[in-house]
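cron nightly-structures :: item 1 of 1
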Amino acid sequence: MEAEKKWADLTAAEKREQRYQWWLNPDVKFSSREAENKYRERALRFIQAYRVEKPDKVPVSLPVQNWPAYLAGTDLYAVCYDYDKTRDAWMKFHKTFDPDIAVIPALVLPGRIYEMMDYKLYSWPGHGIPKNSSGIQFVEGEYMRDDEYDLLIKDPSDFWMRTYMPRVFGAFQSWENLNPFTSIIEAPAAWFIPYTTPELQASAQRLIDLGKEIAVWTKMLGETSQWAQESGYPAGRSLLAKAPFDTLGDTLRGTKGIIMDMFRRPGKLMEAIDVVTDFTIRQTIAAANASRAVTAVFPLHKGADGFMSPQQFEKFYWPSLKKVVDALVKEGIRPELFAEGSYTTRLESVNEFAKGDVAWLFDKTDMVKAKQILGKTCCISGNVPSSLMVTGEPRQVKEYCRKLIEICAPGGGFILAGGAQVDNGNPANLRAMMEAAKEYGTY
């Protein structure tokens, strides 16, 4: 309790510095003094970039998603189901490329777990798409009907459990027959009557089985992260979060539904955005504090140029996202906003943060304008094209990176990164990115 009071008394800047100290000084036993020195050198390099300061050189975040699997001679299907192969492939990647920051396979979808859940929102190799596919696919759908806004607004937890989850998890379809938890008052035996059905008993057993499988998977992730840090590679200490509009547009209503709602029921949409904003703040802060995270990464989907007008962006998208970002900044958490697609026309609108509070990762945004508009207050990173990483020659990649560094590195606050993650390609292009930072990115 005393520790909580002390944390509550810290300013936002002090909380962020404490998170940086947790990152700089992890609770690991380094494999050697050299590994310890390398770890702190690399972590400090990123921290200084996030502070919009000059590190010793431009840090590099290699755009690798499932690439380590293929570099190890296996494929995505194999590492989705064989956790030993996953761990071995990602460890081999570090030994081969010696990256500036750890590459952890947290986004490799554990196939058995998702099969056990009968998850409807993704297709992955061997489940909905061919085994030789190198990525996963999001299955767009209208998982919340247009007449269900009031259910979400009045009780989001109940809506999620008894309406949304039965639709997206085949294993929990029977949950639509559950009684609401708020109906438990006294003499609660009758509340559990639905569990007399074989379907709900099966779902309860599935939760137990899931827990056992997830324990195996998270053990592998923990071992990989621990090994990487002990070997001198700082893990990112990050978690994923979503813009409130994207939670509604991706996860619930789908693209067609959310577009229609902006015109047909804007009032209900705004009410729902407020509800989602509030629980996004609570849940993200709680998760970050539990894991001592430094960063919350927001992949921004539906706010990009061309998806909605500037007026719609200012009304439906940005205010709720900014409210979330502001709340995280107060807690010392550094939001990293991954602007998928182009945000060139949005740059003036989003230039609202103090120095070092927020980082941006750009996909196809004009980096000259990004540097001019945001570069004095925000760390910016990106935007080496995935197409170049996959099909280009190393000399082309190196030249592209050189130009990026010349534009974005002056004054500090720049991380060389891909515009998006890459599943496979020419490994020499990864080395070309790192060489460019060494040759052209020294301060």
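cron nightly-structures :: done
Residues 75-91+105-230 form one domain.
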